[in-house]
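Handout for the seminar on molecular recognition.
Each group receives one record of this type.
Step one: identify the two inputs.
Step two: read the structure output and locate the region that could contact coenzyme A.
Step three: write two sentences on what you found, then compare them with the reference statements printed after the record.
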Amino acid sequence: MTGFNRGHSPLVYRIPRQEDGPQIWQMVKDSRILDLNSTYFYLTMSRWFSESCRVAVDIESGNLIGFVVAFRQPERPDTLFVWQIAVDARYRGRKIARRLLDEVAGGPEIRFVETTIAPSNFASRSLFLKWALSRESSAVLCSGFGFSEDCFPGNEHEREDLYRIGPLGEKRDPRRRCMDESRD
Ligand SMILES: CC(C)(COP(=O)(O)OP(=O)(O)OC[C@H]1O[C@@H](n2cnc3c(N)ncnc32)[C@H](O)[C@@H]1OP(=O)(O)O)[C@@H](O)C(=O)NCCC(=O)NCCS
């Protein structure tokens, strides 16, 4: 699917291919904020989990400039877990991340989106809250359901708080409901 922005080069949003894996790895590395997994991991996601991932490509340059890596939870296939999302720094502020979330969670089979966010990642929290508002669903932080510092060796990683958004398409105030109340 192609997206045009006035004054900007057009982008295409598509399902990743195996050969996108190394570029996704490079983007994660360049972000300097995301946990860098192995190239093998991104190859695997691009090959076997591609249906639940998306990339944004600048049509003019052919460069991959954004991605979202996600998977449908095996025990709850209506729930999409967003592992990582990033946009090239030169392309930020153009609602590309929001569009990537629209694309990856747009199907009727997805009723909930979950992700974990470190407390210091304000941009990420803001992104998911804005997106939840745009989807007229609920997004509330419930601490304790993510990963505490103790889960990470050497306590060198901030805790990760779990956010749950949904049910998608149903209008609610995203600040009012507790996440575990929205589980059904
Ligand atoms: C977070 C990130 C993906 C946002 O990408 P983006 O394409 O610039 O985001 P969008 O333009 O779609 O912004 C959507 C909303 O996110 C929020 N947002 C995005 N960047 C923000 C920032 N730097 N500070 C505060 N809020 C921000 C805003 O609420 C924005 O809505 P608005 O434009 O109506 O104000 C991008 O900054 C990034 O790649 N960061 C590094 C990687 C990362 O932290 N990923 C998230 C954790 S996995």
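Reference statements: Residues 31, 33-34, 84-87, 92-98, 121-124, 126-127, 130 surround coenzyme A (CB under 6 Å). Confidence is low (pLDDT under 50) at residues 178-184.
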